[in-house]
Amino acid sequence: MARARLRHLGIDIGTLPPGPHNAITDVAGVRVGFSTLIADVPHVVRTGVTAIWPRTDDPWTDAACAGAFSFNGNGEMTGLAWIAEQGLLAAPIAITNTFSVGTARDAICALAVRQQAPVPWLLPVAAETFDGWLSESETFPVTTDLVLAALEAATDGPVAEGNIGGGTGMICHEFKGGTGTASRVARVDGAAWTVGALVQANYGSRELLRVDGVPVGQSIGRDTVPSPRPRPAEAGSIIVVLATDAPLLPIQCQRLARRATAGLARVGGIGHNSSGDIFLAFATGNHVRQGEAISTLRMLAPEAMSSLFLAATEATEEAILNALTAAETMVGRQGRTAHAIPLDLLAQAMRGRPG
Description:
With 355 residues, this protein is of the alpha+beta class. The protein has helices at residues 80-86, 101-114, 144-152, 216-219, 250-258, 260-267, 305-326, 343-350; strands spanning 31-39, 45-53, 62-73, 88-89, 93-97, 125-129, 171-172, 175-176, 178-188, 191-202, 236-244, 275-289, 330-331, 337-338. Helix 2 (101-114) packs across helix 3 (144-152).
């Protein structure tokens, strides 16, 4: 059965409608790019870089409000101390493997210099999850040029998923995981606001996996589809980036980032001790331009935030599931195999769901 997104399998989850691409790029101005590196010599490498640009116009000087949340902190996302301090994001984001997060961070700075960005310094956001079970990450295969290629390849429109970019070598709920995205449109007093999610999913144990509340991980046991790694199978992490076009202040972005936890929980993530579950949310509905002494900002009413919370929850949930259904079986170092979740068995497990 060909790999497909969750909705293409006839499995619609949640209550809010998705945007036109059901992707983080449904937020106007957001672009996503990838570089993927798969090689068997001189080293077995299954890795890459995912790049996210928050804005198309003036990305270095027109800051978006931003906030972050660490559900479990065995991971890394650079730049968070400055975001916590001032609540602004004015640079692209990169996601890669654990051993390459420094390279990704430095490459963003190099691109700013190359483009002669009118900023004196940068503390950019680069995040990671560990792909060392399938990839010889200790050989440091991600180069500055690979990161720059992902940044320069970024486009709007549909977003590729599964074994691509930073998600290339990742494992999720003991199936092949990786990159996934989704979006939701929330309506507040007649206005429509989009929330998009992009995840790099590399976490979780098989028996906890749920799709729309159905315990499919228990239905597709290890005797049917072997686990790619020995216990504890829950080792791993997830990065979630949320984007919205709503006019939010930094503290509201922090609140939105926390709601990725609810989407993760719906799929079966509980924040295991060894997991790095770090979430970032940015909002493009306000503009804070460098050099302006005063910025005029709008703020969504606190009572209206619940609709965005639901959108963030549902988009995160579906983005993780899209990563699973899009990912293909991968053989990596030492012949280790991460099997894709069998879509026919998933459909079979879902037939008995209520409603």
